[in-house]
């Protein structure tokens, strides 16, 4: 016996909750597929995915179970009444509603947390300067009178007689400060001069 199953999926939105947009697909398969969950899932999964329903979701598993139970009940009722036919027609209507604000907020928060974690693990998109370029291009010197200024990494003063480092762009910093900075970013913290990265 063949089963002809018509699946109609109604999509409700926040803007039109009482007038869902329907999409429909009709499938034909053998009765044995209806009797075995794995076989039914194999037949229905591509169609459900095409209709925008994740075949591995819990909701989809419940839909599959309901199609099996109701379909088998209908088939058994038809056969027990003595009706013999080549094909039985079944229909499944699934309404997909909009997410509540709370669900949407939870999903957005989760997505942002994952994105932030990935961004952090990738050093916020920063690329370090090569160690060799730092050694070659930074010039160490003692700060003299008239050269005093603030280190723009730690924001503390570079006092007279203090050892500092000068970048090729002429900006000066505490040696340790700019050394640590260039291990994280290859840009000058003031003018964005680029140090080599490879």
UniProtKB/TrEMBL annotation:
Species whose genome carries this gene: Gossypium barbadense
Xref: Gene3D superfamilies: Zinc/RING finger domain, C3HC4 (zinc finger) (3.30.40.10)
Keyword Zinc appears in the UniProt entry: yes
Molecular function, one GO term: zinc ion binding
Known EC number: 2.3.2.27
UniProt domain RING-type: residue ranges: 151-192
Protein name: RING-type E3 ubiquitin transferase
Enzyme class, spelled out: transferase
GO annotation terms (biological process): protein ubiquitination
């Amino acid at each position: 016996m063949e089963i002809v199953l018509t699946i109609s999926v109604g999509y409700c939105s926040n803007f039109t909750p009482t007038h869902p947009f329907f999409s429909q697909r009709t499938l034909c398969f053998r009765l044995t597929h209806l009797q075995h969950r794995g076989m039914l899932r194999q037949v229905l999964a591509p169609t459900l995915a095409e209709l925008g329903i994740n075949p591995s979701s819990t909701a989809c598993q419940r839909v599959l179970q309901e199609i099996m139970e109701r379909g088998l009940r209908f088939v058994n009722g038809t056969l027990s009444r003595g009706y013999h036919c080549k094909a039985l027609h079944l229909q499944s209507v699934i309404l997909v509603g909009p997410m509540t604000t709370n669900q949407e907020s939870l999903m957005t928060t989760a997505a942002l947390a994952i994105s932030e974690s990935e961004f952090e693990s990738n050093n916020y998109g920063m690329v370090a300067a090569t160690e060799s370029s730092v050694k070659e291009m930074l010039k160490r010197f003692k700060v003299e009178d008239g050269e005093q200024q603030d280190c723009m990494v730690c924001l503390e003063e570079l006092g007279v007689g203090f050892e500092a480092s000068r970048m090729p762009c002429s900006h000066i910093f505490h040696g340790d400060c700019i050394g640590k900075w260039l291990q994280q970013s290859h840009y000058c913290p003031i003018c964005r001069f680029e140090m080599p990265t490879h």
